Structure formats: C-alpha cells, structure tokens
Amino acid sequence: MSDEQHEQQHKAAEPKGSPVSRRAFVNAAALAGLGLAGAQASAQTRAESKRGRTGNSASDPGEENKPLLAENPDSNDPPFTDHGDVGAIWFSFDLVKKRLQGGGWTRQVTERELPTSKELAGVNMRLTAGSFRELHWHTADEWAYMITGDARVSCLQPDGKMFLDDVKAGDLWYFPAGLPHSIQGIGSDGCEFLLVFDEGDFSEDANFLLWYCLAHTPPEVVRKNMGWSEAEFDQLPSSELYIFEAPLPKSLEEDKQAIGGFLETENRYTFHLSGMPPAKTTAGGTVHIVDSTNFPVARNVAMGLVRIKPNGLRELHWHPSGSEWQFYLEGKGRMTVFKPGSRARTQDYNANDVGFVPTMAGHYIENTGTGDLVYLELFKTAKFQDVALNDWIARMPPEMAQAHLKLSAAAIAKVPQKKNEVLPA
Ligand code: MN
Ligand code: MN
Hints:
- The chain is of the alpha+beta class.
- It has 3 domains: 1-54, no CATH class; 96-271, Jelly Rolls; 280-423, Jelly Rolls (Sandwich).
- Helices cover 23% and strands 33% of the residues.
- The chain has 12 helices and 24 strands.
- A hairpin with a 2-residue loop joins strand 2 and strand 3 (104-109).
- Helix 2 (19-32) crosses helix 3.
- The structure holds manganese (II) ion (MN) (2 copies).
- One manganese (II) ion binds at residues 317, 319, 324, 357, 363, 377, 386.
C-alpha cells in the first residue's frame, strides 16, 4: 500500500472525537466560516487536504522512481478532491511478462493482476505473417479488437457450418464460449490484437487446445475416431503448439470455396468497424457503439470506442449495467472514479494501460495529452448503456436542482441541456 493510500485509510478510520480531528475541525470551521455541521466536516477534510499541498509539506527528500511518477502525476500528487480507497482502477500490459514463441507472443491482464475486475479479462497478442494461435476453444466468450495489421479468423458452429473472414485494424470478432476457432496473422506483417473474455479469472494458458484432445486419447481410440493408424498417431505434435509459424494461407475466396456448402453466411462473427460512422459526434470527439443491437452474436460483451480531442472530456457518467473494463489505444488521459462513502481516486492512463470502473461508480475521462485520446469501454452485457450527470441535472425541474446544488437558476442553466458523451475543452 502506498503512503498516500495508507494516509487516506487512516484519515477515514480516525474517530470523530479524537483531539487531532477536533482541532482540525475547529480550524477548518474558523477558516471557512461555515454554519452547517455537515458542511464543516466536509470543509475540514478539504482544508486539511489543501494544507498538505502548501509550503514544505509535499516535499519528498528520499529517492523517487521518476519515470513511474511521470507516468502517473495524479496518483503521486492527487487532486485535493480525492479521498479514501476505491480499490484498484489501473494496470498496464507493459507490466506483465510476454509468453514469447516462434511466430509471436501473448500477455494478459486478468483478475490476477487487477483483482477488482471480476467480469472481464484481457489478453494482448501478436502473430507474425502466417503464424497461428493454435486451434482451440474455451469456457468464456471471446471479444476482439484488431489493433494493427491483418488476420484470418474462423469459427465452427454446432450445426457444422464454418464461418471464415479476414479482419484488419479497427475490426472486431466475437466467438461464443465452446465454439472452436482459429486466428492466423496474414498480410505483410501479421497482426496485433486485444482479446477480452467474459470471465475475470480467464487465462489464455488454460484453454482446450486441439493438441490436448489428441495427445490424451489412446491411439486405438484415435484410430476408431479419425481412422489414423498408430504410426500416424506418433507423427502428431509431441507437445502443444500454442503459437507457431506457418505459410500464408490462400486467398479468402479460395479458402471459402474449399469450405463449399458448409460456409456459414447468415451469422456474422466479425464486425467491420473500420469505416463505420460514429454513433455520436460532438464538438469534443466521437463515440462508436457496438453491442448485440448491431452485432447480434456479441450477446455478452458491449463496446464503446471513444475518441476525445485534446483537452476534451468524456462527461461525468456511470453505467447501470455493470463494471467497465477499459483499454487505452492512443494518447494520454486521466480518470477519477467515485464510490459511495465519499471515496474518489484519480489515476493517469497511457496507451497499453487497462482501466477499471466498479459497477455503477461515477467517472469522467479527461484528455490530458497533446493529441487525441482513444480508448475502449467494455461491459459484460448485451447492450451499451450510460447515465450522464448533466442529463440528470438538465431534465429535473430547476427548483429541484437549485435546492440540491445551492446555485442560482442562471448557474443551473449553464449545464449542457443534452447528452454529449464527449464535451469539448
Ligand atoms: Mn480463443
Ligand atoms: Mn464509462
């Protein structure tokens, strides 16, 4: 636990009648000149928090890990509005080990690395041109976003029909649990992609691989099942392949012709997001939404792809449908997550980082970089949904808003009168 977290927990646990707390209370009340007990208690916290940022209080004479501090200034020196412990809301793919093999690599950020994320887990994978992720299936649904390059994917349905397609940067795929599938890097340099699974403790190292099925079946049963002799059984790979190099495939059309009448053409397991217009465009950026309404096979994972212009803001909101798992694709930003009990935590995010928002928790995302900030919002749900704080204030009778916010009608009317998703600077 960091000193800052420790200090915040200590403050939260401090009894209200303790001498330190009473003294601070009196000071704060005198400084702020407030009349209400609730407002004084709140002012005390703020005054104390602000004092920690003046004079010599924030100095740090010991050694520092400066590159890490530069990555996350808002955690090192949190805004005075932060308070208490909201749990883990950040991890990075660049902090986990890669499993490197001829043909590519894989690495994962799951519940083991980010213990708060129980609903979704992520895997980042690279396949060079021609290389395969060994044929497999698993207990979780698999949602994917192509980060760069080209891939050929296939998926077998229980009715014996085979789906086959090529995807490029920005495209998605979705393989429901139990359906066996393939991924092969194609084009001039293969691909890199993000996989998201609807099980927090998912592991890419523990799937049903084609090899396991054959390696652990007695050869006489393999002969009955496949017709392969014991000599042919002995030629099968002696260990799992996982990721391996292979020649580039034939053209998509030729491979489809080879499948013939068994080619699946009704259910689409890929989604060509590249080139699709945004669901929402505002002065501050764009939002693409892909969920079961426009990608019917994606029954358990919904996506928002958010692009925020420099200094723009993904407005204060929350999601009534579960926790949010984020992947930062581009740029630099910061997020504050608000939880009940007056708890708030601000954290910075860079490309390749994973963000997490507990279910229903309020949050905003601000672009703090010089270019666009682009990230994915993912939910274990059939439909993307969010509730915006501005929308709530704008829709309630003005007197209701004034009674709660203690602001003039003119100030209340400044709040944007429609849902924006992304606000300009
Ligand atoms: Mn898979
Ligand atoms: Mn959100």
